[in-house]
Write a structure and sequence with these properties.
Layout lengths: L3 H10 L2 H7 L3 H9 L3 H23 L2 H17 L11 H33 L9 H17 L3 H9 L5 H8 L3 H22 L4
Helix pairs in contact: 1-4, 2-4, 3-4, 4-5, 4-6, 5-6, 7-10, 8-10, 9-10
């Protein structure tokens, strides 16, 4: 995939100035990156793309998705470099923050795609019989109540029950304490169950 990150890396590889940047410490590279030095971008990519890819791979379990996320992270970082403040944290730490967002975006898109595929499968099923009206009502009520949960509760429930992620995986993906994830799931399920019982649906 040809991106501005890969292109910048290739352009800088033959530049003798990059060798000087390679010898700089992380703080200097970070400052040059924030200032828009594409040689610093090349060095940052070489130093930390492996870390970004490892986190993305652990979160998605798919090397192709991890590669796409890695590219997206560095593109976002480069385009948004003016929003990075070296005084507030390290460049790799900032890259990890962007990585977690991109991983969350990946799962959000995957969830939407799964819902689209499920809807398409229902629409093209060989069985022409319509599902019972009670089933449809329950699904509508459940979807409505999920929308009311807000974040991060709704995201946690979707990852746990639609993506089949473990509590530990959700904790790592959303950068939340494991106990917080478990509490959110327990309280969200209690809240959904109470609301759906009032509405006459079954959870």
């Amino acid at each position: 995939m040809h991106t501005e990150v890969a292109a910048s890396v290739r352009r800088s590889t033959t530049d003798t100035g990059e060798q000087r940047v390679r010898e700089d410490g992380d703080d200097v590279v970070a400052a040059r990156f924030q200032a828009g030095d594409d040689q610093a971008l090349a060095v940052a990519y070489q130093r930390w793309s492996g870390l970004v890819h490892a986190v993305a791979l652990r979160s998605t379990g798919n090397s192709a998705d991890a590669a796409d996320i890695t590219q997206a992270v560095f593109v976002s970082a480069w385009r948004g470099r003016h929003g990075y403040d070296p005084a507030k944290g390290s460049l790799p730490g900032w890259l990890m923050t962007i990585t977690r967002r991109r991983v969350a975006d990946h799962w959000e898109e995957r969830s939407r795609e799964d819902r689209r595929m499920s809807a398409a499968a229902l629409a093209t099923t060989e069985d022409p019989a319509e599902p019972p009206s009670d089933f449809i009502v329950d699904r509508v009520l459940l979807a409505d109540e999920l929308e009311r949960l807000g974040q991060p509760q709704r995201k946690i429930i979707e990852l746990a029950f639609f993506q089949d992620l473990t509590h530990a995986q959700i904790s790592g993906l959303l950068d939340l304490p494991l106990g917080t994830v478990k509490s959110h799931i327990r309280r969200s399920l209690d809240r959904l169950r109470t609301r759906l019982e009032v509405d006459g649906a079954a959870l």
